[in-house]
Amino acid sequence: MAIRRNVFWGVLAVAVGAVWLGLTVGAFPPGLADLMVRGAPVVLVAVGLGALLRGRVPFSGVIALALAGAVVVNIALVAYSTRATQERTEQVVPVSVPVGEDVTLLVIDLSALATDVQVALDSSLDRALVGEFVGSTESLITADYAEEGARATFTLREVQPNAFQLLEAVGRGDLTLRLPADLGIDLALRTEQGTVVLNLDGTQLERLNLDLLRGDAIITLPSYQPQSASQADAPLNGTLTVRDGAITVSVPDDVGARLELNRAGSALEPEYDDRVYNYLVGDVLESRDFDTADTQLRYALVAPRGLIRIAATAR
Fold first, then answer.
1. End-to-end CA distance of the chain
2. Same domain for 157 and 257?
3. Domain end (from 84, 116, 134)
4. Each residue of 141-155: pLDDT tens digit?
5. What's the half-sphere exposure (Cβ side, CA atoms, 13 Å) at 220?
6. Are residues 52 and 122 in the same domain?
7. Tens of pLDDT along 202-214?
């Protein structure tokens, strides 16, 4: 038994020394080094548990180290999850993109992490895309803009290059984007967590796709019939997906809408005005005047774990 204890304390001493040396020479990424420093008290916890269990439980040293490690992991998870709900403002990345005179369709491709997103029309903009990202210094923002004839593409990506983030830098970001008037808009947004507000009233929205992993989405559609060649005979104008959260879609009262619902067996019934919509076989909501409406929009709404709500925008 004495030999086992000696081996355990020897291994622990070597591990602590190796980590200390690595921290001293900067061998670990900053986020991992920060986590190791904050978790240093685990050594004292392991020593204390080892002393309490010694002579009472076989392999007491190994058990003490495992329990101490579990305590540190759980505390770290609580700390990171608590920080993740706080807004960060240390990094500000402005967006200002002039759009060429020959461009008629602006394709916008956005990808974000734990970030609230707001997109809306700004009729005061003169052929420019404007906005900003405000968030953590742990987020790397890349943006690209290219024009090809009458089509322009703006791409923005939020990534976290460090596998281990600094605890004090963990938190939510905020991305706002203001759209120019008199341009066709094809918008695609993917985000992991947050609240998404897309007020697209007044825009020339050709296509809209949303994929939100966790959070709620509020979307206002415009009174506009897509005109682009790719949408002329398309079965859908887009797919709006909220995988864990609620989705609210506001449809102008002068628009005929056909909304194909995918609730994946959810017991939550959609909320809608049955004076405006027919509920059809196949989990489809269709405006009662869809066939005669001048503007007809078709979207798929996917919400397996949240409420689908259809509201009206008065004209």
1. 83
2. yes
3. 84
4. 999 999 999 999 999
5. 17
6. no
7. 999 999 999 999 9
161 shares its domain with 290: yes
CA 86 to chain CA centroid, nearest Å:
15
Predicted confidence (pLDDT) per residue in 24-81, tens digit = 665 555 555 566 555 556 665 656 656 665 656 666 566 666 666 666 666 566 655 6
- Nearest to 94, CA basis, from 45, 165, 143: 143
Closest by Cα among 110, 120, 91 to 192: 110
26: region left, alpha or beta (phi > 0 left; psi from -120 to 50 alpha): left
Residue 4 CA, distance from chain mean position: 49
Q: Do 219 and 256 share a domain, yes or no?
A: yes
Task: Tell which residue, 110, 94, 244, 114, has the closest CA to residue 170.
Answer: 114
Nearest partner of 174 among 116, 228, 261, judged by Cα: 116
Dihedral angle over CA of 260, 263, 265, 267, nearest 10:
-110
Question: Which pLDDT tens digit goes with each residue over 220-274?
Answer: 999 999 987 565 566 899 999 999 999 999 999 999 999 999 998 788 999 999 9
Interatomic CA distance for residues 67 and 82, integer angstroms: 23
Of the residues 54, 84, 114, the one at which a domain ends: 84
Number of structural domains found in the chain: 2
Distance CA 19, CA 157 (A): 35
- Record the pTM: 0.77
Is the same domain home to 132 and 49?
A: no
Phi, psi at residue 283, to the nearest 5°?
Answer: 60, 55
Give residue 29's domain range. Answer: 2-84
Tokens of 214: 């966790």
